[in-house]
TrEMBL record:
<keyword id="KW-0560">Oxidoreductase</keyword>
<protein>
    <submittedName>
        <fullName>Arsenate reductase</fullName>
    </submittedName>
</protein>
<dbReference type="Pfam" id="PF03960">
    <property type="entry name" value="ArsC"/>
</dbReference>
<dbReference type="InterPro" id="IPR036249">
    <property type="entry name" value="Thioredoxin-like_sf"/>
</dbReference>
<comment type="similarity">
    <text>Belongs to the ArsC family.</text>
</comment>
<dbReference type="GO" id="GO:0008794">
    <property type="term" value="F:arsenate reductase (glutaredoxin) activity"/>
</dbReference>
<dbReference type="InterPro" id="IPR006660">
    <property type="entry name" value="Arsenate_reductase-like"/>
</dbReference>
<dbReference type="InterPro" id="IPR006659">
    <property type="entry name" value="Arsenate_reductase"/>
</dbReference>
Length: 114
């Protein structure tokens, strides 16, 4: 099953959702601002992406600027920050099994769709 962590207010996320719809494959949409991932889920997502948690942070968001700009946190603390402020999570994230991509640009979805 394919999962997309989606924010409908984001044009890149909407484009990724359209690509999934066109693929004809089954997928699940997680509106992560309404239903944020917990620490275990987010840790698993970061591992599937093969990146450090800091690479998943949207540094232009006001929550980052107000609370974290200029701070050095551990990987676990960055995960906690994203759980507390899900708006900080880069989007869209598309996952299938052990594979995951941040679909920026949208064409990166093809790595998941095959």
């Amino acid at each position: 099953m394919i999962t997309i962590y989606h924010n409908n207010r984001c044009s890149k996320s909407r484009c990724a959702l359209q690509e999934l719809e066109k693929s004809g494959k089954e997928f699940e949409v997680v509106y992560y601002l309404d239903t944020p991932p917990n620490v275990a889920e987010l840790t698993a997502i970061v591992a599937k992406l093969g990146i450090k948690p800091l690479a998943l942070i949207r540094k232009g968001e006001q929550a980052f600027i107000d609370n974290y700009k200029g701070k050095t946190l551990t990987d676990a603390e960055w995960i906690e920050a994203m759980v507390k402020h899900p708006i900080l999570i880069e989007r869209p994230i598309v996952i299938s099994g052990d594979q995951a991509v941040i679909a920026r640009p949208t064409e990166k979805i093809q790595e998941i769709l095959g």
